[in-house]
């Protein structure tokens, strides 16, 4: 994972997955009758609450980038750190993690092929005292997170001294397998025995552990080093006889690894996904008419990675190009590459996931665009133009946690307000519909239990007691409240009469028909809606009144220009007792409205501000968080005009619910 390179002049998932995005939405066909299915196709969906979307972050182990934070930690300390990373993923409404388990020809499990990783204990071959991969899979699945095991295929060491390798290291015992280049050691991709060995080492983890995916990053042949040539001329002479030039031979060596690994993974475990995260540029259009309108490093030529062919041949289930550049970047614009990659995957059955440069947002020394808290969020807005894009993965976990300039918070508030199911893979039959056995009011919520045969379950909640399940209830994630591998769930955000539905999902995420609805009354005792037209709303004369949008709440809504002064519109409410309250906001959305409208919540510990992108996600309740509120009647939620972004700020309605 090239986390520190711009990669302009500097070098910086099978055939079984044949389900295009249309099939992802079509997965709902199995939920309803043919008539209802046609109705579902006509449902108005909110692009801000997609039903299916891969949301993941890379957890890097090489050089202790993310985890473990340093070598030599005790087993319990390592485990506590990893649980915290998973909890962060859950808090950000992610549904997968991509964890580096073979960073430098070593292992984060007791491999019969390679030594224990030095990044665990500080000593290559040192036993950490537990099985990290088994632990990681168990903990991820307990949170209903997919775990994709990330392998670096060729890198042996970040130094070029083989005597520093543990004496039993295969690269030390087989010196003909390796070469030194650019101060590092690599396995020689051109040797068939080496290719078989690398696959065997990876397949050991696939066969022995309940992982959900195999993930390769962008390191194939080494990134070019000025003044050095890859020392594989003798290997080419021995094995490259059918190739007229060494470049085509090198690309074929990588292609063979990809194709053969794809076949072996799916022969062993068809449900395991295979994905690669290549460098973001295949070739530039100036070199190849099939390339992108870019002018950066070409991975096809520089590192012999023919990523376009992997997609066209169906050798991967998903492709996750590292599009680590900002919108409008002249050399390699984000929007240019998302359009190009979308065109590449179209009609192939290969899913497109975007690698996002969380490490750049707000970081010192990055371009001005990366100092804008909206840059990453705007990437996901651009993604909506391309139905081929089914998710995003962020490099890396520590940068998601750092949340510099609030860029991750901004993204989550704008795009991850609801959970999401993972995109379906393959064509397996959906499970049978589960059955809700109880929906019981308990202190602080509603406790649900059900029976079913799914690997995991999705829980939907609809206000009131509808006479039948409308297919539109399930068309996007607006009514989705959780996913879980358990057969019970306590809804702590319930208020008033609610109807619950549960669906079952199999290992590749095909979804069953919904259960029969189960009505539960009660839940939290207090919930209040304050509309801008009500007595609890106050605003200065600077706030206009409009009925322009059909997405309004009530009879009208208020709007104002942004200024460098707060001048908030306030929603007053009578809070019955001190405690935790969920705050939701309603506003009409419009592309001309503000992308960073500040909502102020008068929390017990002081005002807290949450920004909301009012260009999308309108006409529905959108949660902005749970806050500790004091008892009393006071201005609880305000909409401020103080924002540096353009477009009207909107104040329409808020809902406050005790949890």
TrEMBL record:
SUPFAM superfamilies membership: (Trans)glycosidases
GO biological process: carbohydrate metabolic process
Source organism superkingdom: Bacteria
Stored InterPro entries: CBD-like_Golvesin-Xly, Divisome_Glycosyl_Hydrolase, GH, GHL10, Ig-like_fold
Signal peptide region: 1-38
Domain Golvesin/Xly CBD-like: 528-658
Annotated Pfam families: GHL10, Golvesin_C
Keywords associated with the record: Lipoprotein, Signal
Domain Glycosyl hydrolase-like per the UniProt entry, residue ranges: 53-372
Name assigned to this protein: Uncharacterized lipoprotein YddW (UPF0748 family)
Lineage, highest ranks first: Bacteria, Bacillati, Actinomycetota, Actinomycetes, Streptosporangiales
